[in-house]
Amino acid sequence: MSKFKEGNLEAPTRHPLNWKDKDFYDEDSLNNELERVFDICHGCRRCVSLCKSFPTLFDLIDESETFEVDGVDKSDYKKVVDQCYLCDLCYMSKCPYVPPHDWNVDFPHLMLRAKAIQFKKGETKLSHKVLTSPQKVGSIASKPIISPLVNWSNKNKTLRKVTQKVLGVHENAVIPTYHSKRLSKLFVEKSTDSQFKVAIFGTCYGEYNDPKTVIDLVDVLRHNNVEVKLIKKTQCCGMPKMELGDLDSVVKYANVNIDPLIELVRDGYKLIAPIPSCVLMFKNELPMILHENDDIKAISDAFFDPFEYLSLLIKNNHFDDKFKAIDKEILYQVACHQRVQNIGSHTKKILGLIPDLDVNIAERCSGHDGTY
């Protein structure tokens, strides 16, 4: 009897990212693993509709002389890697061969390894380094004198053509506004004696581009008698740099964030962030990158999606659900990085409490990847 089992019969597990191993950055070792996994994907093709990585791979195979992976030039593997946005949907929702299956396929983390090698070799474009530095860009672009000029230039058709040539951001792509009144300036401390305590990781986007939405979240929490703090002196969560393959920066940022976050966790605070990618980074990715760090594990356990936390309030009879009726139809696009947290449909659940509100769900990738 074969020792191999049919996939997806057991709950998926995930191994730590062994980025410190000597073989991790070895290109021959990488290519051998890419060939092994690509061959498994070739025989399955279940993920063909998820993203461009899989159609790119299958086209390379189908157009090769052998119609097999061995007919694909290894230099073309990069074409597959470049199309992966590390959304994790293939791992979480499609692939039947993830651990504990014997074939041990982790396509996203294999792509991450390939991106990390590309970054180490200096093959990353300067424009990509800029676009994956939202905190540095935001801290400059949101300055009072600079933000009006930045926002004006981002709406100027002529200058947008220049931006497209220099940074690769399409001239018609929507670029978020930069606000000189940052989240950290708008947030006002208020103390309560509530047993429910939350600390918000503001995120780069919340701090510089959309502080009003985070303040709205604060108002919702306080309306439900939750003590709210804004976490200060933090760095970017590191997700953009991880998607670039810059793992050294990911660890550098994490080491800055650990101290203020773990102090709040020890004081009994739950942690939330308004951006799904940032939540996923603390919940899932950093514990696999810094798997020997107990503080990261504790931070991960304390991190919640905002609507997941609101559901926790409902469970504890601490949520005011007396909503006014809203006779409107809305579209709720479920972010990939929210779906792969495996927390359930908490946003849909909360929106469903609003009378007369018609909520349509879109469970498809926005195609944005956080960095254009």
Structure description:
The chain is α/β, with parallel strands linked by helices and 372 residues long. The chain folds into 3 domains: 27-120; 126-167, no CATH class; 183-315. It is 47% helix and 6% strand. The protein has a 4-stranded parallel sheet with strand order 2-1-3-4, with helices on both faces. A two-stranded parallel ribbon has the order 5-6. The radius of gyration is 22 Å and the shape is globular.
Amount of helix:
40-55%
The domain count comes to 3
Order of helices and strands: HHHHHHHHHHEHHEHHEHHEHEHHE
Largest sheet: 4 strands, parallel
Specify Rg, calculated over alpha carbons.
22 Å
Strand share of the residues? 5-15%
Multimeric state of these chains? single chain
Count of alpha/pi helices: 19
